[in-house]
Amino acid sequence: MSNNKQELRIICPNGHLGFAPTKEESFYIGAATKPDYYCCDSGSDDIGPGPLGADTCASNIEWQKHDLELMLVAAREQGVPMIIGSAGDTGSNSKVDMYVQIIKDLARKHNMPKFKLAYFYSEVSQEYLKDKMKQGIAIEGLDGREDLTTEQLEETDRIVAVAGVHPYIQALQMGADVIIGGRSSDCAIFAAPALLNDFSESLSYYLGKVLECASFCAEPYGAKESVIGTITRDDVKVTAMHPDQRCTVASVAGHAMYERSNPFFEYVAGGMLDMTRCSYEQFDDKTCRITGPEFTPVQDKVKVKLEGSGKVGEKYIGIAGIRDPYTIKNIDQVVEWSRQQVREKYGDSGYGLYFRIYGKNGVMGDLEPVKEIKSHELGVVVEGVAPTKEMAEEITLTGTRQLFYARLPEVKGTAGTAAFVMDEVLPAGGAHVWTMNHVVQVDDPMELFPVKMIEIG
User: What are the structural domains, with CATH classification, of the chain?
Assistant: First the structure.
């Protein structure tokens, strides 16, 4: 299905739905212009592996409901589609189900007329990948990782595949009014409607790239404000909705090029989006016009990105504040003393002990020693990871309190001057690591993302 529209307008109210609430003023300003689609990404791997591995949300549930309600009410009043990707931060199956239920509840709350809701899951089973590997298909590593091994796979608790535009296009072709997607490429959520309406791949994927973080592409900086992207046969325009924000050449180009390398490779799109060829111009006071991005399809078989997380133990944290100048000067020896006290009981392996030092001449973490520390105070966050909660708690408590008891030369018996140490350490839940950042070859881009349709109301 396609049409002959010469212009398509998409509003994005939030760069990560529910991570912090959408600002309502700019949203309503944008909604009043009657955009063709309401689209928002709801997930990211920036939140770390914990939420995926534990199947929890990184975002407050009420904030997520708030953002979904804003979009659903406006989209249904106007009678245009609403698209959400990477439901519930991770796009796991349970979070898709959670969002579908929220939409049902909101429809009942607002007594909405019947509408069609499409949804798809993104989780991938270990068995599916084991079968691929038995067929001799390598699960290729990204960002310097080796190809996936059976051992790594078995250490993984949950896997999601990253969907491209295909399930969104199919859902729209099926007549969906609302789409709730599992884990998805950020830009695919916005590119899909444009591609369905026969706009070029180059401009459609650029539209997705510039809209995915909402007002991050505007100045002055202000998150969680709405922007509208407009695609034509010749260009993309992006307009800030907040009265005090503007989309400028500098803000839009800077946002589009923040990726670590170019061309930006979009695995789930099956090609390369080269943004180094873009031209930017100020269209009006609040709008930047972009021309010239180039999308080049990859000719080999479709590859879908996989994200996997595995639990490695339980975690506790402790916090210490250090003001004594002599202790600050010798902080590396103080940390080593604390480590040694843990080693004396638990040895050198089977746990993790990490010291994050804030104020060490503006640096943080387990870094190279600084010759001269100018800060008058250090904040030390101690993280202990171990197989059991009891062990993690003791390791963290020992590592934190021993900062207070470190035996430094030239200290003449004075106690209590070195540090303020928390009386207790705090449980921080399970500790997870990324076990998978890979791509899998598939015969059909819809292979992992079957679309389901239900009627609401």
Answer: 7-122+162-302+442-456 (no CATH), 312-434 (3.30.70)
